[in-house]
Specification:
This protein is of the alpha+beta class and about 475 residues long. The protein contains 9 helices and 24 strands.
């Protein structure tokens, strides 16, 4: 097509946009337009950096909080009671049924051995909370327990045989395992069980006899990332520590654009600090909208129910074809921790599955001043156990409702219906006769639920069983 000079004749003009009027003289932007453009560019990059690094900073928050209690490559934290103490933590998607453990693994100075217990559901995730391997029932040890060796991508030494060897691009990594209370018991017995069955130590060294097994129930912490300027301040520190290979060139470029660069101090001026803070506020609003009013295809588990998936698309790597599904990745990492195929893929009788719900049958957000009923039909499809747990949409943590256990589960003595179904109630006061089936909610506070199925059965995957919607009954 032959260029037409007249197409470029209107070079002095003003255009109205959502960031104000943009004006040009002879094709050049005005001083005001230049200012607006750069403010918008820096704000957009701050917002995108916040959203992009949520998985990384969620892992870092775990490392930081646990690091106040646990020595890396040695100590193990144990939630030694099913319910006690967990609701005092601010932590994404904690459950009140498993006796689980957690530890920091650092491979900067060489490979680390992780000796794992039998009959657990566990995982090793890297510093981005990306999946490295399962451990336990769906891992290569197949529930017998085993020896895993974690090495950094740059490691070129030899590892003795007899272990499962995995590589990681990050120095800091996270290992956790969920055990069943029938195996572990609670309290001191649970601590002893992990002490006997779960050890972490550098390759070539014996387990430290002084390794601590810390009852996390007694040490409430906030293990969620900051949502103010501290987010970028901490991110800048971690970027200095982790190797370049932990990041793509685009990720490093995005950070460089907002003043975070390896080998340089992070010293934003007053203008940039204000834009970074605003970017976090906008980013957090985007994350909330994406989670609680998701527009993703396939987010709803059923066409006629409000229950939703956490792993949209059924992929733990958040891929859709050959593309990374950015909003599916954001949805999961804003709300949850632990990435493994065992939570996303169809594994009948093994692994675990999760549904979440924020709305009632009339599509209104769940609010604490009302009373709701959740009907679960007979034959709940869980080979091991099921639970329903309440969370707060602001913290994404267990609902701090004044009780140790904002949940109900199949371990408890509940009131069942004659046909084998069950009705659970949520509200500020318990319905008469259903006190054991009730979870307290707080007036003027939102809440949501997770339905967990450990050892999910075929009727969950083929959808011949499905929970009813929450119905308001006040």
């Amino acid at each position: 097509m032959t260029p037409n000079p007249n197409d470029y004749a209107d070079t002095t003009r003003t255009i109205g946009t959502r960031i104000g009027e943009l004006s040009y003289v002879g094709g050049y932007p005005s001083d005001d337009t230049i200012r607006r453009a750069y403010d918008q560019l820096d704000l957009q990059r701050a917002t995108q950096a916040y959203l992009e690094f949520i998985p990384f900073m969620s892992s870092q928050a775990l490392f930081d909080s646990q690091g106040t209690l646990l020595r890396e490559n040695r100590d193990v934290g144990v939630f030694d009671h099913q319910a006690k103490g967990k609701a005092d933590w601010v932590g994404l998607t904690f459950n009140t049924e498993s006796i689980y453990c957690s530890a920091n693994v650092n491979v900067e100075h060489g490979p680390v051995v992780i000796e794992t217990p039998p009959n657990v559901l566990g995982v090793i995730d890297d510093g981005w909370m990306r999946y490295i391997t399962d451990i336990g029932n769906v891992g290569p040890d197949r529930g017998a327990g085993g020896s895993y060796v974690l090495v950094h991508d740059d490691f070129d030494g030899e590892v003795p045989g007899g272990s499962f060897v995995f590589r990681t691009p990050t120095y800091m990594n996270w290992v956790m395992a969920r055990a069943f209370v029938d195996d572990t018991g609670e309290g001191a017995r649970a601590l002893d069980w992990y002490r006997e069955n779960f050890r972490i130590h550098p390759l070539g060294a014996e387990p430290d006899p002084d390794a601590a097994y810390v009852p996390l129930s007694e040490h409430p912490l906030d293990c969620t990332h900051a949502r103010d300027l501290r987010y970028f301040e901490r991110l800048a520190e971690v970027v200095q520590y982790e190797p370049s290979g932990a990041f793509t060139s685009y990720e490093l470029g995005l950070l460089k654009a907002i003043g975070i660069e390896r080998g340089r101090p992070f010293e934003p001026d007053e203008r940039m600090r204000a834009l970074l803070a605003e970017g976090i506020e906008i980013g957090d609003a985007i994350a909330k909208a994406n989670a609680y009013a998701s527009r993703l295809d396939g987010v709803r588990a059923y066409l006629d129910r409000k229950f939703e998936y956490l792993f949209v698309g059924g992929r733990h790597d958040f891929m859709s074809g050959d593309a990374l599904w950015l909003d599916a990745r954001l949805l999961f990492h804003y709300e949850a921790i632990v990435v493994t195929p065992a939570m996303a893929s169809e594994m009948v009788g093994a692994g675990s599955q999760y549904l979440t719900c924020y709305r009632d049958a009339d599509d209104h957000f769940l609010m604490g001043e009302h009373t709701y009923r959740l009907h679960l039909p007979p034959h709940i499809p869980a080979a091991n156990f099921w639970s329903v747990t309440a969370y707060h949409p602001e913290t994404r943590s267990l609902l701090a409702n004044g009780t140790a256990q904002p949940s109900r589960n199949s371990y408890e003595q509940l009131r069942w219906n004659e046909d084998g179904s069950i009705d659970l109630y949520f509200g500020p006061t318990a319905p008469d006769g259903y006190e054991q089936n009730w979870i307290r909610t707080l007036p003027d506070q939102g809440w949501s639920i997770f339905l967990r199925l450990y050892g999910p059965l075929e009727s969950f995957f083929d959808k011949t069983w499905k929970p009813d919607d929450l119905v308001r009954c006040d």
